[in-house]
Amino acid sequence: MKRKLNDDATMDGIMRETPAAIRVVLQHGMLCVGCPIASFHTVSDASREHNLDEDQLRSDLEAAADADGAD
């Protein structure tokens, strides 16, 4: 079952809850890992700041969450 990211979830929270999301963040060229702003930025904020397609980023993060939950 595909998980849906909460619109209020922060990048830091997503990476803490779903360690597989760290790989997604890095693959998208984002520097959220260890960034002090990650605890404030939502997926929307981060995608806007990094000029990324929000729908694609969200989809990739949700796929990582699904894969992480399959273990």
TrEMBL record:
InterPro entries noted in UniProt: CHP03980_redox-disulphide, DUF1858, ScdA-like_N_sf
One Pfam family hit: DUF1858
Region (Disordered): 48-71
Biased composition (Basic and acidic residues): 48-61
DUF1858 domain: residues covered: 8-57
Protein name per its UniProtKB record: DUF1858 domain-containing protein
Native organism: Mesorhizobium captivum
